[in-house]
Amino acid sequence: MKKYFILIISFLLLYSFKPSDCSGKGGVCSLNFKEVIKTEEGVLKGKILCKRCDLNLSNKCQSVLFTEDEKIYDFCSCSKKNKELEKLEGKNVKIKGKFCQLKDGSFQVHAESFEILKNEN
Questions:
Q1: Which residues, other chains included, contact 35 with Cβ-Cβ below 8 Å and sequence gap of 6+?
Q2: Cα(73)–Cα(64) distance, rounded to whole angstroms?
């Protein structure tokens, strides 16, 4: 009986853990549980691309923001706006929100709002 009690408590603790929303240095990103080393708020412009099909950087399809300065930002699962952005593959966008750099050198975006930009020819 004691083993079952410990098992149930362990299960509840494991599934009740929720990482932070990457809100600052030292936080943990809920997308991939990596440490955040820098967070900035502002505006970024870029294009929504597929990490596999367009950039050949992954074995699976994943929408990312490819910025004008050629940085790649993953969409963190913490933001509800990111779900909408992921569906805009091929579109140029301007995103207002938080932008995080992770300890492994990768970047993530937490969109507060966004605007679809007209394609410049």
A1: 26, 27, 28, 29, 102, 103
A2: 6
